[in-house]
Amino acid sequence: MATPFSGRIELDIRDSVPDWTPFEPPKAPDGAPNVLLITLDDVGFSAMSCYGGPVPTPNIDRIADSGVRFTQWHTTALCSPSRAALLTGRSHTRNSMACITEAATGFPNASGTIPPENGFISQILNEAGWNTYAIGKWHICPSDEMNVASTRRNWPTGRGFERYYGFLGAETNQWYPDLVYDNHPVDQPKSPEEGYHLTEDLTDKAIEFIGDAKAIAPDKPFFLYFAPGACHAPHHVPREWIDRFAGQFDEGYEKMREKTLARQKELGIVPQDTELPPINPIGTPQTRTGPDDAPFPPVDYTKPWDSLGDDEKRLYARMAEVYAGMLAHVDHHIGRLLDYLEGSGELDRTLVILVSDNGASAEGGPDGSVNENKFMNGIPDSLEANLKQLDDLGGPQTYNHYPTGWAMAFNTPFKMWKRYDYNGGTADPCIFSWPKVLGHGGELRDQYHHITDITPTILELLGVRSPDQIGGYAQSRFDGVSMKSAIDDAKQPTTRTTQFYAMLGSRSVWHDGWKAVSSHPVISGWGHFGDDTWELYHTDVDRSEVHDLAAEEPERLRDLINLWFSEAGANQAFPLDDRSALEILQTPRPQVAPPRERYVYRPGGAEVPESQAVNIRNRSFSIGALVDLPAAGAQGVLFAHGSRFGGHALYVKDGRLHYVNNFVGDLEQKVDATEDLPTGEGLILSASFEKDGQKAPGVAEGVLSLYYGDKKVGEGRIQTQPGSFSIGGEGLCAGYDGGEPVTSDYPGRHPYTFTGGTLHRVVVDVSGKPYVDLEREAVAMMSRE
């Protein structure tokens, strides 16, 4: 309720008494602290050194050494659900985030839209007088709203953050990111050749946001949600960071698990009798099928290291070196942020929290990938071709991900990985540091807690009460509980007694040190949930879930299964969805605008996301540009869609028109005009593709012709790719090519803007039913986890 006016209003202002109280902005209490909430991506439990991992992280260790590390802190096993729970204090299903936003199903548990009655901590703190900033990955916005034509209600600025700089989706190219600044897309400030990398850019902006406000109001506290894209695929990092780890993973992922576990025991991270589960703990494609002979997901399999050839070992080890370099690199920039706070005198008054959003990622499959876009288009990676790019891994020429074995290793000592409700999917680092107030230094906390507990903990530490209403919406209850008593005292019992989990068909429930978990493969399409096999573990002593006690304690298991159903019902977790990625993709979802046969694009505007752009797959199409060319000398891009990993473009160079179609980064198909450009006004420069065959399912073949007006000036045979041009980012542009270029053949400098004439508009015509390779699209969607 607004503060009532308590002054006096008379006819004449001279007789009236003002009262500024109702009109003043909220003010935090004197001496109120800052909050820095760092959220890493796909890092897993045991990659960083302070959790026994093989990657030195001195700056994250610096946070741990001045605070407390939790050893039984848990997430939801996927990105969007975890981030929603983190920022609201409500369970993922009550946030309508049963899965990632791209997999929304239209039920209350999975719409991809967080209800307004589940207010964000940014909204609470903003109304309490804190400046609020979000930096980096968002991914808690419906996919149909990730564009400039949509409402901003679910963008960071619509959820209580005053400033934002980052990317809205699940992942982005770290060299050529899909950037949003506050409420609009922007280009990156410089190119990779000029030293650009996303993590450095994000850190610069975090420092800028803090400094801008502190210059005006030095005592006003801030809440900074710092969420770099590291270490989600693609694993992109400068070469010098990769080379620091040369040879350090040559023994393989199984040996690395053993060494990591030994360090964890030495540090006290896990109990001394903790054992390692096998690398394929719930089955393999060869040994396990589900009801009605439904197959085990082949991607969820790990090849034994000893079964690999020397070339495979060399490639896989390099992929781990790249990942390690990426983690070390983001640690360095976390250090820059800490140094800035320390140098400006703010660190002592800053509560620092660091977490990861889920277990390490296995989306690279058993073999990993040098260019994930190949897999998304149904084109298998070739070991021979990948070895040729071994030295390019991590750079702009690759879009890479490591194999499943490293996911298991970076989750040591746990089973499985991201997506699964075993500890490998849900157990993650969690560090609190505020030595001036909390004291401590390098201590461990074994109390069981969950990602929903972070928001209530911050509020208690700050002494801020959550309001009954936010934006006119009555607020719902928190599912999280405060962790403050555990932070204060290692001997205090946990304030949490029960936690349920549900993700893509995987289910589990923890209660008072015991855990029941189904061995149901995720996105398997198995169904038959009533026939699931449940396992029982005493996780207080068996963190790695090796000793299944289901047969020994059937009554306890039955009670826990019943408890899961009770908790799932209370948290609106139904219906369960383990359908295949293909089935999930076919779920009808809202669209900003329906597909059409004619698309008009004006020059110089923001990139159009691929999901909202014209679809040319497996069909004939034409691209026409209306231009004025007063004299010779025009050059640059007329139209571009995609990147070097898949895309096509129409451009002018050396006085002639050119078209290139980059087939999944493997084949640049170029068609050149044979005549110089004409001059004059109202000219139409065009490329027209006539499909006359199909090389493989979805791969159209045909002739691409170039025209000046109605005069053909060039032609060549090309093939078009069946799946999307990119996994995340890289949209459609008119008059320039933003982000990663489609081809290196462009004239001039990035972003290769059209000059020397006037581009009025570009029209793309398509006919017939749009082709969509649903299976490939489904794989691409689920790889955005």
Query: Termini separation (Å)?
Result: 40 Å
Count of helix runs: 17
- Name the overall outline: globular
Number of strands: 27
Q: What is the spatial order of strands in the main beta sheet?
A: 6-5-4-3-7-1-8-9-2-10
- Largest beta sheet, briefly? 10 strands, mixed
- Sheet/helix structural class: alpha+beta
Mean pLDDT: 94
Helical content (DSSP H or I, runs of 4+): 10-25%
| Poorly predicted regions | 770-774
Query: Which band does the percent of strand residues land in?
Result: 15-25%
- Radius of gyration equals 27 Å
Written overview of the protein:
- By secondary structure, the chain is α+β, with helices and mostly antiparallel strands.
- Residues 770-774 have low confidence and may be disordered.
- Helices cover 21% and strands 22% of the residues.
- It has 17 helices and 27 strands.
- Helix 4 runs parallel beside helix 7 (310-343).
- The strands form five sheets. Strands 6-5-4-3-7-1-8-9-2-10 form a ten-stranded mixed beta sheet, with helices on both faces. A six-stranded antiparallel beta sheet has the order 17-27-18-23-24-25, with no helix packed on it.
Set out the fold topology.
Layout: E1 34-40, H1 58-65, E2 68-74, H2 79-88, H3 121-127, E3 131-137, E4 163-167, E5 179-181, E6 184-186, H4 198-216, E7 222-227, H5 239-243, H6 253-267, H7 310-343, E8 350-356, H8 372-376, H9 383-388, H10 404-409, H11 423-426, E9 430-433, H12 435-438, E10 443-450, H13 454-462, E11 469-470, E12 473-474, H14 484-488, E13 498-503, E14 506-511, E15 514-518, E16 534-538, H15 554-570, H16 581-585, E17 598-601, E18 621-629, E19 636-643, E20 646-653, E21 656-663, E22 667-672, E23 680-696, E24 699-708, E25 711-720, E26 732-734, E27 758-766, H17 774-782
Parallel strand pairs: 1-7, 1-8, 2-10, 3-4, 3-7
Antiparallel strand pairs: 2-9, 4-5, 5-6, 8-9, 11-12, 13-14, 14-15, 15-16, 17-27, 18-23, 18-27, 19-20, 19-26, 20-21, 21-22, 23-24, 24-25
Helix pairs in contact: 4-7
